[in-house]
Amino acid sequence: MKTSQILFLSTLYASAHSYMAPKDVGSMPRNLGTPESMSRSHTPDSMDSARPSMECVDSTAKPSCDCTCTNGIRFNQTLSTDAPESPSCSTCEAEKEQYLVQLAINAGLATAREQQLKTDFENAAARETQLKTDLDAAALREQQLQIDFATASAHEQSLETDLEHALSREQQLKSHLDSASTREQHLTASLESKEEAHLATQRDLEAQLKPFKSPTFSIQKCYFTTTKRALTDFYIKDTEMTAYKCKHICRGSRFFGLSDGTSCYCGDVLSEELVEAGDAVCRVKCGGDGYACGGVGVTRVFRYEY
After folding, report:
1. 8 Å CB contact between 286 and 243
2. Furthest C-alpha separation in the chain
3. Where is each WSC domain found (predicted)?
4. Using one digit for the tens of pLDDT, what is the confidence trace for 264-301?
5. What is the rounded distance in angstroms from the CA atom of residue 7 to the CA atom of residue 46?
6. pLDDT of residue 18
7. Which of 61, 250, 283, 299 sits at a 20 to 30 Å CA gap from 99?
């Protein structure tokens, strides 16, 4: 192995060992010399003068290889257990190179792991921020829900109060309706009683007024009454006589009669053996109107129709 490669790998090993400690595969003292010697090792002169001094020990006693360079760098690497009984320097160098390569790989893995951890930490921080934002939004939603619940509770309480008022009003109206129904029944009974009393009074009055009602009448006939009257129950003379006046005077009788324009006769029975007269002699006008009121010695007889 070239001296420059050994220096590079040893520097990489020192850097990798600061990130993570590899599994114990052997003993390698960090005898890398002073900073001055390290800087000299990267100059052309030091690189040309670097001659590793290989000192191999008996593998039967201790399976390790101790190599020291002229610039002071020393490697002491334990050989694998399956190494030959008399390992050569090339075998030792191969072991050292393989070990340093593994250290470089482990350092690269450690760097990648560190980068992955950094990315995971950033993602975790972003998730934490998002969770905090979601938590704040949830708190706002909870606060809004509390406000909505308080509003709904107040509205429900208002509805319950309105319902209680409505039920109370309904009870009052029902009480008024019951009172009105009782009052209606009382008024109906009173009205029926008064109607019956009114009908009874009406019938009584009609019975009392019946004799005084003005009945209709019809012309019976004309009779000669020079020798005797046709009707003998009542007689009255009036210069203003009319047929209707005589009818009222004789109400209650069956007949009434008019003669010579001024005389009124009443009676329930016509006289016997009366001689009927013609209509021509029975047209003397009444004194009170122009209606025919019998004639001289002739009586026009009318019959009541009750």
Report:
1. yes
2. 207
3. 216-306
4. 999 999 988 889 998 889 999 998 888 888 999 999 99
5. 11
6. 46
7. 61
> Residue 99 has what pLDDT?
84
Q: Tokens in use for 228?
A: 């005797």
pLDDT < 70 regions, the chain: 1-89, 208-215, 306
**Rounded Cα–Cα distance for residues 49 and 73 (Å):** 13
pTM reported for the whole predicted model: 0.34
